[in-house]
Amino acid sequence: MFRIRNAMGALKSRWVISILLLIQFTYGLSTITGSINIFYNLSYLSNQSILDLKSTFLVVPDKITGGLLKDKFNQEQVKNIYTELGNNPDVVSYGTYYEDTVLLDPSKDSLDSKMVVELTKTNLGFDVPSISAIVLDKNYYQLLELKLKRGQGLLEQDFNKNRNENVHVLVGSYFKKYYKIGDVINSQYTINGFLPDKYIVNNNTSNTYQKLDKSMLIPMSKEIYNDYNSMFTRLHLGTILKLREGADLENLTKIIRLPGNDVSLSLKSFGEEVKQNVKDNAYIEIPQLILGISFIIFSIIGIVVTTIVSIMIRKREFGIKLALGESKFGILAQIIIENSIIGITGVVLSLGHFLWKYSALLRFSSEFNYASALDYKLNGTILFFVFLVLLVIIVISSCIVYLFIRKLDPKTLIGGME
Asked: Rounded distance, CA 192 to CA 217, Å?
């Protein structure tokens, strides 16, 4: 406590320099927090897909200008495409899905007030909580090869039920706080397992994906699976293929294209898309990264210069301490405490600035829970790296300052400026 009181007094005596350092820390660490978010998200995209990046391919349409012309074709033509895919030796497995939203009904369930707030998508104008869902057929579920730590997963009979019947579902880890296996949501969805904290494709034409921690996987009902309109739409917008290495993409592309279809379909490598997305965002972030590195360098220089100036101003104080037996490491400890107070205060101010500057983006990220480069957040991992940057600045600047302190001599210090 004595050293802390001394540190506070020393900072007060050089308050102008201290405020300038605080301003530098506030804006610099706020910028670094944004860059940490970007690179954390890029690492997440590269490593946390529930689909195998190397073997997964997405069926994607080119520009759809006049809508999907279902009336030009029939159900047998679409079924034949899937039959050919299933018989093709290059296709390990395939499946289809569509995106849905489950609106939670407070009249059917007793919902936790905190969960209601966190699951209400105000950006979409919703005034009730909702869960983002992926409705998938049996083939797609088998393609995922999920290994659940808890629960049995989806069952065979779940895919043979009608749309409004009670079915088993899988939900993200977020719901562990509010539900257990066997609990029923909306009097229809029985939880039969919790999903890993990964992400899944929720739109074949987008380079943002759905994180699973607040999501639900629902088995596709038999009437929707066999409905021609749904089948035709899923062929164009919701078909996933798992292919063998060296698969003949040209031949497979011919298979998925309906003759005379105004919308041309093609195959897109999921892994290549993610890789390109990561690469593009990494290049975009280079100027911010340079700015962040510059902040670290100038922060070290600023701390070293202000510390040395502070020592020169307080020559007599430090000279007397050394003469009375204080070690040079003790002097260094005093300096480190002073700089740490500035640094920690700067971190708090920078996080406040970050929350204010990116408030809209943080709210959007929280509500939609997409896996993308701009999925800004302030979780434990981000805070760890922010404090790690601060620690690097303090350690390097302290090492440089010690090179100056070790040369100090009590005789030359006593009598200096007070």
From this structure: 11
Six-digit token pair at 289? 């990264």
Please report, as a single letter, which amino acid is at residue 110: S
pLDDT on residue 230 = 93
Q: Are 41 and 374 in contact (CB under 8 A)?
A: yes
Alpha-helical segments (H) within 57-188: 75-87, 113-118, 138-144
Which one, of 59, 390, 34, 107, lies nearest residue 232 by Cα? 59
In terms of Cα–Cα distance, which of 53, 32, 55 is closest to 44? 53
Q: Name the token pair of 403.
A: 């090179």
With both helix axes pointing from N to C terminus, report the angle between 2-13 and 328-357 in degrees, rounded to the nearest 10. Answer: 70
CA-based max dimension of the chain: 98
Rg of the chain over Cα atoms, rounded to whole angstroms, equals 30
Tens of pLDDT, residues 135-154: 999 999 999 998 887 788 89
* DSSP class of 265: E
CA distance 43 to 79: 38
Element (H, E) at 278: helix 270-284
Q: What are phi and psi for residue 168, nearest 5 degrees?
A: -80, 145
- Alpha-carbon 290 to chain mean position: 22
Whole-number Å distance between alpha carbons of 290 and 24:
16
| Residue carrying structure tokens 């892994």 | 271
Contact 283, 384 (CB under 8 A): no
3-state secondary structure of 213: coil
CB 333 within 8 A of CB 2: no
* Helix or strand run (H / E) with residue 132: strand 130-136
Residues contacting 323, CB < 8 A, separation 6+: 410, 414
| Cα gap 136→367, rounded to integer Å | 23
Query: Which residues, given as ranges, of the chain have pLDDT below 50?
Result: 416-418
3-class state of residue 11 by DSSP = helix
